[in-house]
Amino acid sequence: MVTENDVRTAALALPGTTEKPSYGTPGFRVKDKVFARIKDPTTLVAWVADESEKHALIAEAPDRYFTTPHYDGYASVLVRLDVIDQDELADVLLEAWRVRAPAKLVAEFDAEQA
Questions:
Q1: What's the N-to-C CA distance of the chain in angstroms?
Q2: How far is CA 33 from each of CA 11, 19, 22, 66, rounded to the nearest angstrom?
Q3: Which CATH number belongs to the domain containing residue 39 in this structure?
Q4: What is the total count of domains within the chain?
Q5: pTM for the whole thing?
């Protein structure tokens, strides 16, 4: 099971990321835009590009990704932390970060990774 500390470590490793509470739980921001937050001890809310990506993730792996009526109409997906592993967590957070980060920061990050 991925823990809150695992989420924190992976999120804060991304450039320009800070932690600030969001709805009373740990939230992770890039340039003051939330890209992920811990909803409860077993659930992460992660931003995605759009609702079609959200539904594709849920269709592909309903054991790991889901939504609730509260998130209908929003480009965010719920992630079961007790099911995903560290590598998948890192991927989810990176993609959420990319969606919310300024283009210049993403370009700088990509250049460093090349």
A1: 31
A2: 13, 11, 11, 22
A3: 3.90.1150.30
A4: 1
A5: 0.95
